[in-house]
Design goal:
Length: about 400
């Protein structure tokens, strides 16, 4: 018998003796005496005592309830040796091929960050080129481990496609026109031809905005994003519409970018978000946490260049994020990762601000785009992530 059970058994015996001593003289009569008053029946109360037995040593961690499918994706990724990502290959800045044919871009770096965190190698990715219409099906079938392809997070997509992780880019839908078109406001587009990618929130926003304004238009739709802007540049439509970041990317790719302008009109909110197939909460949490790590790293001033120095920071939160704070566990043990997995991701692609600046900053390789709402919350923007601890 264990020491704990012996202690509990002793306590129960002591309680029993005490209860017997208190009730020893109180006997309930079975028959009423004849010729006299019937005495009231005596009630013996039952006292339930709860005894907490102290447990020596370190308590066991709480068990994580694991639903069906939990952990399957991480196991599959490790077995395959690569993270399969559904991506864009023709959207400058976000997902495109460089001069060497390598997949690069803002969205691609989040795939690389996950690979660095999970496999310790940011190049261990398999970038699968998908169209806008493919995004839902590849998530629903689990053909890829994540989609990181300038995708708007909506309630319907969240319910039907997969799990949307965390907003990596705040955007809004706008309009690209020729400067000599004399179009400056929505009303000027009455009866216009509008080039748009089919199967997107952009297409729906266009319809509802024009209907609400009482305007008519003719949609010229394409499945491929590049076809939209090719047709627009050829003059097959008066206006091109999409997220403003995509319009900026398209304008920068045109032969005469200065001939075009993005109107100061925003008809929607477009939170762009990587997503994962539904059914594996561990993988869902891994991708979210990697994104959180990149955002928190910018808040703390951790960069790909100073990360080794920052591991000796006096700030415990920084040391925890980088996996060097003793036994502090930011969740890596439950997620099946190493303590330094977020440090590996930051070292590979930089913090969130570094990723943004690499493609859209003053010296960006794609084009310049003001951060606007994508500034950190501490700087007046909306970019915010839960703490890593």
């Amino acid at each position: 018998m264990s020491r704990k059970l012996m202690y509990l058994f002793s306590v129960l015996i002591a309680i029993s003796i005490l209860a017997a001593a208190c009730g020893g003289s109180a006997e309930t009569p079975t028959t009423a005496p004849s010729g006299g008053d019937v005495p009231p029946a005596q009630v013996v109360n039952t006292v339930i005592v709860t005894v907490e037995v102290p447990v020596s040593g370190t308590p066991a961690p709480p068990e994580v309830i694991k639903p069906a499918g939990y952990g399957e994706t991480l196991a599959a990724v490790k077995a395959y040796g690569k993270v399969k990502c559904g991506v864009h290959t023709e959207l400058l800045g976000f997902g495109y091929l460089d001069a060497d044919g390598k997949n690069v871009g803002f969205d691609i770096d989040f795939c690389r960050a996950v690979a660095a965190a999970v496999l310790g190698d940011p190049e261990a990715i398999e970038a699968k080129s998908i169209t806008a219409a493919d995004r839902g099906p590849v998530l629903q079938t689990g053909e890829v481990n994540m989609v990181t392809r300038n995708m708007t997070w909506t309630s319907k997509r969240d319910a039907e496609w997969g799990n949307f992780t965390w907003i990596t880019f705040y955007d809004g839908q706008g309009f690209l026109v020729r400067k000599d078109s004399n179009i400056t406001k929505l009303e000027d587009m009455e009866g216009a031809t509008v080039c748009v990618t089919t199967g997107t929130t952009t297409e729906k926003n266009l319809a509802t905005s024009f209907a609400d304004a009482g305007l008519t238009y003719e949609a010229v739709t394409f499945e491929q994003t590049s076809a939209v802007y090719g047709a627009f540049e050829e003059g097959r439509c008066d206006v091109a519409t999409s997220d403003k970041s995509q319009l900026a990317a398209a304008q920068a790719s045109m032969q005469k970018p200065d001939d075009y302008t993005i109107l100061d009109i925003t008809i929607s909110k477009e939170p762009l978000t990587p997503a994962v197939p539904a059914g594996d909460d561990q993988w869902f949490d891994i991708v979210k946490t990697v994104i959180w790590g990149l955002i928190n790293a910018e808040e703390f001033g951790i960069t790909s260049a100073n990360i080794e120095e920052m591991k000796a920071s006096p700030n415990a939160n920084i040391r925890t994020l980088l996996g060097v704070e003793g036994e502090a566990d930011w969740g890596y043990s439950t997620l099946g990762l190493s303590p330094d997995s977020l440090a590996n991701a930051i070292k590979a692609v930089g913090n969130y601000g570094e990723i943004y600046d690499r493609y859209f900053g003053a010296n960006g390789v794609a084009f310049q785009l003001d951060r606007g709402l994508n500034k950190l919350w501490t700087e007046g923007g909306l970019m915010y992530a839960p703490p890593i601890k």
